[in-house]
Write a structure and sequence with these properties.
Layout (H helix, E strand, L loop, with lengths): L1 E2 H8 L3 H9 L7 E2 L5 E3 L1 H15 L4 H10 L4 H35 L5 H7 L6 H8 L6 H8 L9 H15 L8 H17 L4 H12 L12 H20 L2
Antiparallel strand pairs: 1-3, 2-3
Length: about 250
């Protein structure tokens, strides 16, 4: 039999930890004397070895307790389970890497980055669309969400995303132009045509998303633009629509 002090010494586990394992029922002592001193038999020492190995493999104490209660402890099965967890963690790291790649794309095309934009974008890239659908349920109908779900996502390098990047760069390069100028009007026309294709002709939804993006609510923005670009393109589109009305 081992005293709690001796077990702590040979296992390199603190007495406090062994007492905690006793309190939660993970490792009960073989017996306690009248003074409350704990003693552990060889089978308890073996059980502690199992606990420490599982803990080192990354399992939580509650999971370890379930292993021990089930009496189905098998080293091979435990290692295979831990391998699966590691593989899932690697998948998550790859997703984070995708998010970083997306941020690099944004940083290379955005001349004025906001920290809010960075944090809002720093989500799992592959789950971005699902996240948007879930976040926007209270704002959009199912039909509208299906349209939103088809939007290009930063990092996908789709044709639509590339076209957006090119258009945004052209707009930024011409922010000094008069919104009523021919250059600005050409940009407004191109912008409206791309929006019309993206939103499948649903101008009401396009306006709804545009206004929601302008609120700068984290998680609700598909495209984050600096205020100067927003003001310029809005004024250019306003002039463009006015010209169309005058021709009717």
């Amino acid at each position: 039999m081992y005293t709690i002090g001796k077990l702590a010494e040979i296992s390199q586990v603190s007495v406090r930890t062994l007492r905690y394992y006793d309190e939660i029922g993970l490792l009960l002592p073989s017996e306690k004397n009248a003074a409350g001193h704990r003693f552990y038999s060889n089978d308890k020492v073996a059980k502690l070895q199992h606990i420490l190995m599982l803990r080192d493999l990354g399992f939580s104490l509650s999971t370890i307790q379930q292993f021990l209660i089930s009496r189905e402890f098998d080293l091979s099965s435990v290692l295979k389970m831990r391998r699966k967890i590691i593989q899932e963690e690697q998948d998550q790291l790859r997703k984070i890497e995708d998010s970083i790649e997306a941020l690099i794309d944004i940083a290379e095309t955005e001349t004025h980055m906001e920290w809010e934009t960075i944090f809002a974008t720093y989500t799992s890239h592959s789950s971005k669309k699902q996240y948007l659908r879930e976040s926007w349920t209270k704002y959009f109908s199912e039909e509208e969400q299906q349209i939103v779900d088809s939007f290009p996502v930063f990092g996908e390098k789709s044709g639509d995303e590339s076209q957006w990047e090119t258009l945004v760069q052209k707009v930024r390069a011409n922010l000094s132009q008069d919104p009523a100028s021919s250059v600005a009007q050409d940009l407004a026309k191109e912008w409206l045509e791309l929006v019309d294709r993206m939103y499948q002709g649903n101008s009401k939804l396009a306006n709804k998303v545009w206004e929601l993006n302008k609120t700068k609510k984290p998680g609700y923005r598909v495209f984050a633009y600096e205020p100067e670009l927003v003001l310029f393109i809005e004024q250019a589109i306003k002039h463009y629509n006015q010209q169309l009305e005058s021709l009717r």
